[in-house]
Write a structure and sequence with these properties.
- The structure is a homodimer.
- By secondary structure, the first copy, chain A, is an alpha/beta fold.
- Chain A has three domains: 66 residues, dopa decarboxylase, N-terminal domain (Up-down Bundle), CATH 1.20.1340.10; 274 residues, Type I PLP-dependent aspartate aminotransferase-like (Major domain) (Aspartate Aminotransferase, domain 2, 3-Layer(aba) Sandwich), CATH 3.40.640.10; 105 residues, Aspartate Aminotransferase, domain 1, CATH 3.90.1150.10.
- In chain A, 43% of the residues lie in helices and 12% in strands.
- In chain A, the strands form two sheets. Chain A has a seven-stranded mixed beta sheet with strand order 1-7-6-5-4-2-3, with helices on both faces. A four-stranded antiparallel beta sheet of chain A has the order 8-9-11-10.
- In chain A, helix 3 packs antiparallel against helix 12, helix 5 crosses helix 11 and helix 14 crosses helix 15.
- The first copy, chain A, is globular, with a radius of gyration of 24 Å.
- Chains A and B meet through helix 1, helix 2, helix 3, helix 4 and helix 5 of A and helix 1, helix 2, helix 3, helix 4 and helix 5 of B.
Chain lengths: 477, 477
């Protein structure tokens, strides 16, 4: 593909992107293909000679789109939002063009420096503790991870190293594995599955703690668990608190948890993957109170801040903890600037890294904070609009509280009827949602996921839910 | 940014991409900025209101480019190649537009299915064992990881789970940490630092084994270590063999290692991050012999196969091993198709994932295998051309063997003089290389990194090396 062909194909692709968004309402939000559908549409060998662009371009509609779950569709209400935006797409073109692997400052200074700067910008926008600034007197700083699950894992591994080293200071002959058997981590029953998974990868003991009636982990629950475990001779070392759980968007009490963690000298990590973006609005920032006690904090700009996946923003109070866990230095990577600017490969699981700060930079500048705040406010307003519909219909009830852009609701009555409802809604196909469960209660989740979702879409979503509920109730009674 | 603004900005960006490549020779391959340079060029706060595209676009040249190490520059000979290409850029525009998070089949069926298909294509192109095909009777299959370091870690964690479970079958009350103290893994002194790092993350014991005179790990060395460790009561469980080491592009003897691993019932992982792409050429495929003994195999199409970073191709003989390590199932992720198509979140460290198979698909179709083979052959030919220059100059010597597109060489004499040489070459700035060291020998690495590097560039590189060597030798004597 030469320059001219690329330019022509690129222009065609730009138009495709615009049309995709413009006409997305004509598509079925959730595809109705069966597993294995694509094999019938493609040859079973790669081509030996180049194919024409036109053929490939046609295959986007013929092969790919029939099996796409349209996360950009205004009627997509599943999981949580995943962002993309024109500025983010433009930034990724530049990132793909430069294609450095920014594992060290020297491997591409701009890749490291822009990341340091935009992560500092976010500290100020979100009023995060100053200890998270790269310019703070300590060793704090921010880094872009791929996903919140990686951020959690990085935090767990850092804390694990710190506590194992501490145990070995006391008993130098102690084996790592034996030191490990003493460590215990905590999280709530409502935290994301990737937290438990991080504990499994770290191979540490862990306890899944109960929450209060608002699905929030409380300080006294944590304190009780810690006391019990210390009595057993264990060393509590890590807590992952969640702000905005995946199931029902509940908020752990980070103020209480943070105080316990400080008193008990335990690493506190806050996972605010989804809700974190809202903290750019002053009125939601109090939800983050307690972050001043955290050793690490993470949220995903790729969820609600218009940055295309993957961009997970993580800060640490002391980057030495993570560097100590990971640093290994071969000759071919030595350079002279390590003390002034971070070598980010020591801050993450993978070795190489893309130039991801570009998309954060493009988005922050081309949207501006005010517009990003407005998007979040508007989405939450839409959620409350849907909440109204639910509250005004005596067949339904709200589950939990609508704080962000997620409405959890259910038909009053059995779980079975609600299982039937969600199945029927997704079979109907006009909107797409996923269900969840807290303890014994099964419910539906309506999550506002796109900036194209508007008032009339919420009216429509309610119409669909209400109609399908009519049918479900009719056929059940 | 509305549709029209996006189209205009996108067109400007496409032209920028073309011009960047066209005029890249006018840029200094390695920037001459000092750490912290960018802070002076940018405000210390994110803007409150949207900025104009034109301003941001100008900042690419004003702020970003002065600090870019140009991996695309024909005079960039450092590390190993990182690919990008027009087809890959186009595919990423589409991927950013769809922005699904393909953690399950249902979250975007096309994202999973295209990955299964193109990974099967590569099995056939590279003549990999049939057990790696998704259609094989076992539980084999391929998955796209972000980096080779993640692939190694996934392999180590899978093997660790398998062996801990085995130990606990015998002694059900044994603690994970205690089982861990028995496990020992191996790799050679020449493997990438990320292998040792994966062992540290897994917290397993490991031994770094010596290599033969060609920097290759041999079967008897491994066997001896295993015997010694078994005699100590340890359980050898994992070997990472490398095909194409980072230091000097050496090849471990996978045939010998594989036989030992089979006899000893140990997990064999092959890391061919860089050299793996060459196995699409029948004449280089014999270097991969022994892969039939491997439990997992990995190479990076983003290194040498024209796919933009990140795209690391990994295959496993039995995906159940990895699924067992990671699987945790919340209600909101349940769907009905799990047995027919993989839920790739169980195959990797992160939870979410981008639609990365698109760029592999675009590249394979728009280049075709023949052209990709030609690129590899041409790069290796250029390496041999540079090798000729070195061999014909009595001041220099080749280190190791030129097998792929990497030439390791040095001035005959002390390490100090070679340290001076590489420092002077990089200060000179006309070309960029990094050095390495094997045992006590310090040497320079010339790695062909871009498809734009041509015969006359090699002549030029030699001219620079030769001139700088003249000066270094003059001032030293």
């Amino acid at each position: 593909m030469n320059d001219e062909e690329f330019e022509a194909a690129g222009q065609q692709m730009l138009k495709y992107v615009i049309d995709y968004h413009k006409n997305i309402r004509e598509r079925r939000v959730m595809p109705d293909v069966k597993p294995g559908f694509m094999r019938k549409l493609l040859p079973d060998h790669a081509p030996h000679t180049p194919e024409k662009w036109d053929l490939l371009f046609k295959d986007i509609e013929r092969v790919i789109m029939p099996g796409v779950t349209h996360w950009r569709h205004p009627h997509f209400y599943a999981y949580y939002a995943l962002s993309t935006s024109y500025p983010a797409i433009l930034a990724d073109i530049l990132s793909d063009t430069i294609t450095c692997s920014g594992f060290s400052w020297a491997s591409c200074p701009s890749c490291t420096e822009l990341e340091v700067i935009v992560m500092d910008w976010l500290v100020k926008v979100m009023d995060l503790p100053e200890a998270f600034l790269s310019t703070s007197p300590g060793h704090g700083g921010g880094v872009i991870q791929g996903t919140a699950s990686e951020a959690t894992l990085v935090a767990v591994l850092s804390a694990r190293t710190k506590f194992i080293n501490r145990a070995k200071e006391k008993s130098p002959s102690m084996e790592n594995g034996v030191a490990l058997t003493k460590l215990i981590a905590y999280t709530s029953r409502q935290s994301h599955s990737s937290v438990e998974r991080a504990y499994k990868i770290a191979l540490v003991k862990y306890r899944i703690l109960d929450t209060d009636e608002k699905q929030a982990l409380r300080g006294d629950t944590l304190k009780k668990a810690i006391d019990e475990d210390r009595a057993k001779g264990l060393t509590p070392f890590f807590v992952c608190a969640t702000l905005g759980t995946t199931s029902s968007c509940a908020f752990d009490n980070c103020k209480e948890i943070g105080i316990v963690c400080e008193q008990e000298d335990i690493w506190m990590h806050i996972d605010a993957a989804y809700a974190g973006s809202s903290f750019i609005c002053p009125e939601y920032r109090p939800l983050l109170d307690g972050v001043e006690h955290a050793d690490s904090f993470n949220f995903n700009p790729h969820k609600w801040l218009q940055v295309a996946f993957d961009c997970s923003a993580m800060w640490m109070k002391n980057s030495n903890d993570i560097i100590q866990s990971f640093k290994l230095e071969p000759v071919y990577l030595k350079h002279d600037n390590e003390d002034i600017m971070p070598d980010y490969r020591h801050w993450q699981i993978p070795f190489g890294r893309r130039f991801r700060s570009l998309k954060l930079w493009f988005v922050l500048r081309l949207f501006g904070i005010k517009k990003l705040q407005n998007i979040i406010r508007q989405d939450i307003k839409l959620a409350h609009k849907f909440e109204e519909y639910i509250r005004n219909d005596p067949r339904f009830e709200i589950f939990g509280e609508v704080i962000m852009a997620l409405v959890c609701f259910r038909l009053k009555g059995s779980n079975e009827i609600n299982e039937k409802l969600i199945k029927s809604i997704n079979e109907d196909g006009r909107i797409h949602m996923v269900p969840s469960r807290v303890d014994d209660t099964f419910f539906l989740r309506l999550s506002i996921c796109t900036t194209r979702t508007q008032n009339h879409d919420i009216d429509f979503a309610w119409k669909v839910v209400s109609e399908v509920a009519d049918n479900v109730l009719k056929t059940t009674n």
